[in-house]
């Protein structure tokens, strides 16, 4: 079997076109969605993520502002900045680019963002709403993965989904979203012994660890749907995922590539959340 490749970049492109016309309609009603991105310091990876987000916003017609603050910014100063953005009625969505310098407590910052402007979907209120299946901002990477599965009409209900990785931003919430869609969910992590015993049972396998090519064909069931979230820079400078693409492609029924897979979808869902924020706040 050769897997059908789910190209996130192509799907992202068509979704962004749809959002562009949605924003045009909103603008005719006097609503211009506005996203403010806060970047602390000058980490090159963070800078590149932020510029990807701004490019997407520009294309769609979302008004995006970058607030670039020095590494020396204190937690108190950052919390004050967030407080001002929370009060600014023109700002619909606030995103603080993670990771933050070690002297700033990430959780304090996440919880300072007003839940109505939490377009990253990381606030405990957003997570709690997702858990209890209320309307909310879904975290962007899990939301992107769900959208990729839905774009191929992949049935989730009744499937065994195995998630490798349990971070708050990817592993845990993607498992929860699949559970909400009636999958049976198993989580694997660094303390899971004999992990391939679980991964080999997966109808849907989601890998979000950050270890290049850690999942080979021997860890995958024939016909499985495999979503590779990992992004790893290897020695030759190129990017690769957590899944050994070439071997798994010959065994899976669907597979996402790295790059051009989940990454572009993450940014796209951030835009979707920002439009939702603008709509909700206008009502
Ligand atoms: P974290 O480092 O926060 O979490 C990694 C998870 O992997 C942890 O739960 C950890 O387990 C688990 N893990 C580590 N080693 C093993 C192992 N040997 N076997 C099984 N599980 C293991 O990472 P993130 O969730 O933030 O990101 C994961 C990857 O996805 C990274 O490569 C990141 O760059 C990428 N990413 C891509 C995005 C995209 O849009 N494409 C968005 C976000 C992330 P434990 O909890 O026990 O420590």
TrEMBL record:
NADP recorded as keyword: yes
GO molecular function: methenyltetrahydrofolate cyclohydrolase activity; methylenetetrahydrofolate dehydrogenase (NADP+) activity
Any single biological process term in GO: methionine biosynthetic process
Superkingdom field: Bacteria
Positions of the Tetrahydrofolate dehydrogenase/cyclohydrolase catalytic domain: 6-120
Sites where the protein binds NADP(+): 165-167, 231
Matching InterPro entries: Aminoacid_DH-like_N_sf, NAD(P)-bd_dom_sf, THF_DH/CycHdrlase, THF_DH/CycHdrlase_cat_dom, THF_DH/CycHdrlase_CS, THF_DH/CycHdrlase_NAD-bd_dom
Keywords from the named record: Amino-acid biosynthesis, Histidine biosynthesis, Hydrolase, Methionine biosynthesis, Multifunctional enzyme, NADP, One-carbon metabolism, Oxidoreductase, Purine biosynthesis
Record-linked Pfam families: THF_DHG_CYH (PF00763), THF_DHG_CYH_C (PF02882)
Pathway membership: One-carbon metabolism; tetrahydrofolate interconversion
Enzyme nomenclature, EC number: 1.5.1.5, 3.5.4.9
Free-text function comment from the UniProt entry: Catalyzes the oxidation of 5,10-methylenetetrahydrofolate to 5,10-methenyltetrahydrofolate and then the hydrolysis of 5,10-methenyltetrahydrofolate to 10-formyltetrahydrofolate.
Family classification: Belongs to the tetrahydrofolate dehydrogenase/cyclohydrolase family.
Subunit structure: Homodimer.
Protein name per Swiss-Prot or TrEMBL: Bifunctional protein FolD
Species of the source: Amphibacillus marinus
Gene designation per UniProt: folD
């Amino acid at each position: 079997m050769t897997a059908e490749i789910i190209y996130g970049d192509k799907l992202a492109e068509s979704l962004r076109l749809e959002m562009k016309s949605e924003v045009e309609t909103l603008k005719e009603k006097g609503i211009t969605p506005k996203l403010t991105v806060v970047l602390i310091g000058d980490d090159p990876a963070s800078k590149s993520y932020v510029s990807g987000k701004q490019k997407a916003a520009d294309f769609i017609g979302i008004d995006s502002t970058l607030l670039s603050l020095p590494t020396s910014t204190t937690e108190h100063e950052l919390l004050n900045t967030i407080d001002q953005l929370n009060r600014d009625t023109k700002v619909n969505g606030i995103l603080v680019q993670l990771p933050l310098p070690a002297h700033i407590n990430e959780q304090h910052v996440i919880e300072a963002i007003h839940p109505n402007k939490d377009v990253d979907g990381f606030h405990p209120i957003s997570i709690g709403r997702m858990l209890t299946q209320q309307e909310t901002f879904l975290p962007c990477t899990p939301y992107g993965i769900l959208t990729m599965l839905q774009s191929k009409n992949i049935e989730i209900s009744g499937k065994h989904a195995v998630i490798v990785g349990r971070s708050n931003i990817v592993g845990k919430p993607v498992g929860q979203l699949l559970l909400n869609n009636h999958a049976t969910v198993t989580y694997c992590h660094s303390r899971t012994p004999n992990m391939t015993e679980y991964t080999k049972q997966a109808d849907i396998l989601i890998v979000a660890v950050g270890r290049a090519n850690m999942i080979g064909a021997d860890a995958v069931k024939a016909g499985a749907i495999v979503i590779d979230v990992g992004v790893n820079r290897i020695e030759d400078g190129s990017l690769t995922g957590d899944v050994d693409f070439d071997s798994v492609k010959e065994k899976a029924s669907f597979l996402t590539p790295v790059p051009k897979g989940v990454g572009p979808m993450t940014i796209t869902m951030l835009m979707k959340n920002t439009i939702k924020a603008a709509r909700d706040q206008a009502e």
